[in-house]
Amino acid sequence: MLQVICGFLAGLLLAGFGFWLAGGGVVGMGVAVVLAALGYVAASTLTEPERRIGKILVSALPNGQKAAEAIDAANMRLNAISMLLRQVRDPVVHKEANDFIVATQDLVKYVARDTSAYPILRHYITVYGMQTEKLLRSYVDVESSGALDQVAKARKETVEALQVLEQTAAGELSRAVSAKTLGIAADSDAIQRLARMDGYDTDTAAADGVPGDTSIQPKPRTEQQQS
């Protein structure tokens, strides 16, 4: 609403200024119309609230804009699939399609937390999202046709495809998270190397450690280390 008001006021002011500057008449009206349109677009753009992912501004996140675009595309596709799902009568097909939606939403939620994983979501929704929507649309058409022999065949094929799609969504989520897991392993190795350089016996601590006791006993420093 604020965008509309600001755009209208800016357009009105520029239109009046342009009409006065052009000396009125037909030319003034033409200038006023052009400036009104430009003023409205400019003011609307400037007052548009910046997109957020969660509570964080997109501009403050690495790859924020690309992640936001991937999330928007995924949500649009999921909304279209959900609308088709309302028309599905078979409970098994309905369940499998809903499981696919939930698995895809998990991937979307992860990308909202880790925006660097946006390429995985973008690839997934581009490759599999459109196919899923096409699959359900075709199934709804067959189911509503009343041809019972074809409905049974379509049901079987649709359920099998949706099960694969659900597994694919879970696999893509695992692939996205694996980057974090590799990062944790690298950080762990770096911490252990630094501890060993400072004379701590990390191998003994790992082998003899008691649950709840994370202390690492330092090795005696040599004279060279002490110097």
Structural account:
With 227 residues, the chain is mainly α. It contains 8 helices and 2 strands, in the order ααββαααααα. The chain has helices at 2-21, 25-46, 64-85, 91-113, 118-143, 148-197, 202-208, 223-226, and strands spanning 52-53, 56-57. It has a two-stranded antiparallel sheet with strand order 1-2. Helix 4 (91-113) packs parallel to helix 6. It is flat and about 90 Å long. The model is unreliable at 210-216 and 223-227 (pLDDT under 50).
What is the strand and helix layout of this fold?
Elements: H1 2-21, H2 25-46, E1 52-53, E2 56-57, H3 64-85, H4 91-113, H5 118-143, H6 148-197, H7 202-208, H8 223-226
Antiparallel strand pairs: 1-2
Summarize the structure in short.
With 227 residues, this protein is an all-alpha fold. The chain has helices at residues 2-21, 25-46, 64-85, 91-113, 118-143, 148-197, 202-208, 223-226; strands spanning 52-53, 56-57.
